[in-house]
Amino acid sequence: MSAATEIRTALQENLKMLHLPAMRACFEETARRAQQETLSYEQYLLELAERECETRQQNRIAKLLRESGLPREKTLANFDLKRLPVKVSRQIKILLDGGFLERKENLLLFGNPGAGKSHLLCALAQELVVARGRKMKYTTCTLLVQDLLAAKRDLRLKKEIRRLGQYDGLIIDEMGYVQQSREEMEVLFTLLAERYERGSVLLTSNLPFSKWEEIFKDPMTTAAAIDRLVHHCVILELNLPSYRMEQAKKNRDSEVGGELAELGDRSTASVSGKASATPLRGSAPAPPERSTPSRETEKQEEKKQRKVGDV
Question: What strands, in cross-sheet order, belong to the sheet with 136-140?
Fold first, then answer.
C-alpha cells in the first residue's frame, strides 16, 4: 500500500469518527482542484468546512420540516396573495422576519370558512422554518386535545406540555370548527396557560371572540383563555369569500362557456351547409333544357315548306 493510499484511508476514518460526512465525501475532489488552482491550505480547509456547514444546514431544515407536521403543499408560492387586504399583506411581510416568535407573541387568524386561513398560516410557518430555522409544530385543535387527553389519562400531561414547549411556534388549526367536550377544553386551556409568555401560539378560527364560550363551555374559562392569547398577539382578519367556492364557480363558468362555443360552431356549420345548396340572390336562373325534336315533327315541317314553295 502506497503512502498516499494510507493517508487517504486514515483521513476517511478520522472524518468518519468526527462525524463529518460532507468533508469525507468531497475532500479528495477538492484537494485535486486546490492543486490545479494553487489554493492555500487555509483556502482548501475553508472550502471543506463550508461544504460541511451547508450540508448540515440543509439536513437540519429537512428535519425541522419533517418534524413540524406542516402540509408541504401549502406554501406562499401557490397562495394567491392578491386576494389579501392591503393591511394583511403588509403584516405578513413583517411577520416573515420571525421577530414575533422571539418576543413570544401569538398570531391569531380569523375569517370565514374557505378564506385561506390555514393555507396562509402554514405557508408562513414553512417560510420561518426554511429561511429562519425556526422550530414549528402544526396540529389541528381536534387532534391536539385528543393527544392531551391521552397524556392526562396516562399521567404524563406535564411531560407532553413540556415536549410541545420546545417549539418556537405551536400552530393550532381549526379552533372551534368541531364542538369539544368540557374535559377536552380543560386540557387545552391548561396548555395555553402553561405556554403563556413562554412560546408563541398560532391559531385559526372561524368564530369571533364573542362566540368562544361555545368552545370553552364556561364564561370564566373563556375570558381567561382569551386574556392570555391577546395579551401579546397579532390579529389578522380574512373577511374574504371562500376560495373553494370561487374556484368552483370559475370551473363551472368555463364549462358552460365551452358548451356554448361548441353549440355556436355547430350552428355555423349547419347554416353554411344550407347556404351552399341555395342559389345566390340576384344570379341569373339556369336556362331551361332544350328538347330534341322527334323524326315525325321534322317530316311535318318539310311538307309545310313544300306547300309554301308551290304557291
Answer: 136-140, 169-175, 200-205, 106-111, 233-238
CA distance 252 to 254: 5
DSSP 36-101: HTT--HHHHHHHHHHHHHHHHHHHHHHHHHHHHT--TT--STTS-GGGS-HHHHHHHHHHTT-HHH
| Domain of residue 176, residue span | 81-244
N-to-C CA span, the chain = 146
pLDDT in tens, 181-229: 889 999 999 999 999 999 999 999 999 999 999 889 899 999 999 999 9
Is 276 inside a domain boundary? no
pLDDT value for 177? 83
In terms of pTM, does the model score above 0.90? no
Same domain, 57 and 30: yes
The rounded radius of gyration (Å) of the Cα atoms in the chain is: 41
Is the Cα torsion angle 193, 195, 200, 203 positive or negative in sign?
A: negative
Q: Give alpha helix (H) positions in 133-242.
A: 141-153, 157-164, 182-195, 213-216, 219-230
Helix (H, G, I), strand (E, B) or coil at 173: strand
Average pLDDT over residues 270-293: 53
CA 251 to chain centre: 18
CATH code, domain with 133: 3.40.50.300
SS3 state at 205? strand
Closest to 49 (Cα-Cα) out of 20, 29, 14:
20
The CA distance from 48 to 101, in Å, is: 33
Clarify whether residues 45 and 89 are in a common domain. no
* Average pLDDT for 63-82: 95
Q: Domain check: are 44 and 96 in the same one?
A: no
Q: What is the pLDDT of residues 145-180, one digit of tens each?
A: 999 999 999 999 999 999 999 999 999 999 988 777
The tally of domains found in the chain comes to: 2
